[in-house]
Amino acid sequence: xxxxxxxxxxxxxxxxxxxxxxxxxxxxxxxxxxxxxxxxxxxxxxxxxxxxxxxxxxxxxxxxxxxxxxxxxxxxxxxxxxxxxxxxxxxxxxxxxxxxxxxxxxxxxxxxxx
Length: 114
Description:
By secondary structure, the protein is of the alpha+beta class. It has a single domain, classed as Trna Endonuclease, Chain: A, domain 1 (3-Layer(aba) Sandwich). 31% of the residues lie in helices and 38% in strands. The protein has helices at 3-17, 59-62, 66-81; strands spanning 21-29, 32-40, 43-51, 89-96, 105-112. Strands 1-2-3-4-5 form a five-stranded mixed beta sheet. Strand 1 and strand 2 (32-40) form a beta hairpin. The termini are far apart. The model has no long low-confidence stretch (mean pLDDT 88).
């Protein structure tokens, strides 16, 4: 398994252990891709998973720049357009230093907003 796919599985397990329910993994559309879509109570969570073993260039969090945020927002809007009712939503980031999460997992709720 590729490290990125393993990191996404690790992040999904971690978030489920925190009480979130996985709705869909790897949602893809012409607008982009969302790593994980989950439910946190009434909230729909779009989670971006980042794996960075080195902290050069600011580490995992810094890699979610404005361009990446815009792609995630467009993909989320596409996903939401198919729903009969739009629930409250947020964008989270799950940052891992290793694909297995053994070096720690950082979960940033509301990592960015529209």
